[in-house]
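User:
I would dearly like some help making sense of a protein record. Take your time, and here it is.
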Amino acid sequence: MSKSETIKTAFKAAFPVMMGYIAIGLPCGIMESQIGMNWLMAFVMSMTFYSGAGQFMIPNMWLAGNPIASIIASVSFVNTRQMLYSAAFSPYFEKVGKRLAFLFSATVTDESFGVNMMQYQSGQWSAWQATLVNLFSMTSWGVCNALGVLIGDALAIPTAIAAFSMTSIFICLVLDQKMTGLNVFVIVVSALGVCFFKLIGLAGPAILLGALLGVAAGMVFRKVVA
């Protein structure tokens, strides 16, 4: 596959995520402007930190008066789920150079994980294509955050709408998966797990624990069915 074709297919795969980031990145940038960040700071943070959930948490916790140590600890804990993403892709990167593997693992996040995993499972997909999906998604996220800061308070978007926009992206990614018995079982167990952990007061690590529960349940399901 030529370089131009590689770039074109990666951009096509990342495009829905990039469009979804408009609805999320703009309000995130508006919130960042409220704590004194300028557009360049928001862009640099988005390109180096690249965590939608984490970047929403930072201004919320800052405006609530939480100490910096508490913000760092909370955001770091929420983002521990991203360690699972690189591990999930390890079979596809066994023969890939260390630099490219590092770049991919440093830029993968929730949405690009879903897109790339779907591409790998549905057909031919390369490490370069997967990394470009990450970079396209990350760049669009950074640009949208920077624009959100520039817009500032001129565009008032309720937080509830922004939160649903993020949720809707995950719903679309789930619906794009092949609804095999294994996938349905993992999705249901993971969703119920997140709800359960939130009900018992573990709202912070609920997503991570729910995901781990879903992975464990999927491994057991595959072993029993096989």
Remarks:
- The two ends are 36 Å apart (CA to CA).
